[in-house]
């Protein structure tokens, strides 16, 4: 983290290289003094950031592929032109989010921001704590739950159902924002409802509450993953991959698979789907790791009745998930918002 204050001139408080621990960063932030000065020259400040903050000498890791993120807090209109500095920041791959009060210029905020949805307006700086949720909610998701509905899970299916309802209920379910689908599997997959079935959160949660285990055995997770790729995350079923919507798969596996999840799992990842795998003691940990996009996205519980224990960790991963944005030149960058 680095911090730059600006008014008529820009001044760096500390650069990206200065502190190595979270405690030191937070202590430095708490010790900040108001810079003062007038008027606001945002263009000059952006140029300063480009030349003095996002550089290797100042601790930038752009050359290592680390996303470069700028968060601008603006309390008024700029006294100089911002277009050229904004262009220069984009050319070096910086992803910008702009937050302004009512005294700020909305068009300027949108010009600075990587996308219009990354330009946020607040009445006063006291509203800043609410901005995190605004940034989070601007990133739409297609979320598919692939749940084990086999005979082996029948006695614990209510715990699975309650967990899915709790997790789904924490999203902003709306056809224009977050959408949810549910698929059950055992010896074959079965669609409970697709991404475009319901318009309201209430309808989604009502259907989840009414879910019953499909039954059957053994479990074929590979075939189920292939079904999800071919029939659920697709445009004709409400999938929004072509709209750069983040697509997330949450798998709940209650046992070992009779087929390999490797091929279908890799195909989902290649299509940009972020996969999270949750298993019980009867699951195969190696299979879960093949499914998940990241080792940190693999969970294991002794029994599905223990699913509430991982809920908060799961939600943390979901809300920290990277969003792919395109910098100038067409380069795709994974940008993570917390």
UniProtKB/TrEMBL annotation:
It is found in: Secreted, Extracellular space, Extracellular matrix. It comes from the Eukaryota. Its main location: secreted. Keywords: Cell adhesion, Collagen, Extracellular matrix, Repeat, Secreted, Signal. One of its GO terms (biological process) is cell adhesion. The keyword Signal applies. Signal peptide: none annotated. PANTHER family: COLLAGEN ALPHA, COLLAGEN ALPHA-3(VI) CHAIN. This is VWFA domain-containing protein. It comes from Acanthochromis polyacanthus (spiny chromis).
């Amino acid at each position: 983290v680095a911090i730059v204050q600006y008014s008529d001139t820009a001044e760096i408080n500390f650069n990206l290289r200065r502190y190595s621990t979270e405690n030191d960063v937070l202590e430095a932030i708490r010790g900040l003094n108001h810079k003062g000065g007038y008027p606001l020259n945002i263009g000059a400040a952006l140029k300063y950031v480009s030349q003095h903050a996002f550089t290797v000498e100042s601790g930038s890791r752009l050359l290592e592929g680390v996303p470069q993120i700028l968060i601008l807090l603006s309390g008024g209109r700029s006294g100089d032109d911002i277009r050229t500095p904004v262009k220069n920041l984009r050319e070096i791959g910086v992803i910008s989010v702009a937050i302004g009060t009512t005294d700020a210029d909305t068009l300027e905020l949108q010009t600075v921001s990587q996308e219009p949805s990354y330009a946020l307006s607040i009445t006063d700086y006291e509203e800043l704590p609410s901005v995190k949720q605004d940034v989070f909610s601007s990133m739409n998701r297609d979320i598919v739950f692939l749940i084990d509905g086999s005979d082996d899970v029948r006695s614990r299916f209510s715990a699975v159902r309650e967990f899915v309802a709790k997790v789904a209920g924490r999203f902003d379910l709306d056809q224009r924002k977050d959408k949810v689908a549910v698929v059950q599997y055992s010896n074959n997959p079965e669609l409970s409802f697709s991404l475009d079935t319901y318009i309201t959160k209430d309808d989604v949660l009502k259907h989840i509450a009414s879910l019953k285990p499909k039954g059957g055995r053994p479990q074929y997770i590979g075939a189920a993953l292939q079904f999800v790729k071919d029939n659920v995350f697709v445009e004709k079923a409400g999938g929004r991959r072509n709209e750069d919507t983040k697509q997330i798969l949450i798998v709940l596996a209650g046992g070992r698979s009779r087929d390999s999840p490797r091929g279908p799992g890799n195909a989902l990842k290649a299509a940009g789907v972020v996969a999270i795998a949750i298993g019980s003691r009867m699951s195969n940990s190696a299979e879960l790791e093949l499914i998940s996009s990241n080792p940190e996205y693999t969970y294991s519980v002794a029994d599905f009745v223990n699913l509430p224990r991982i809920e908060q960790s799961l939600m943390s991963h979901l809300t920290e998930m990277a969003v792919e944005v395109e910098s100038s030149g067409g380069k795709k960058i994974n940008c993570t918002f917390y």
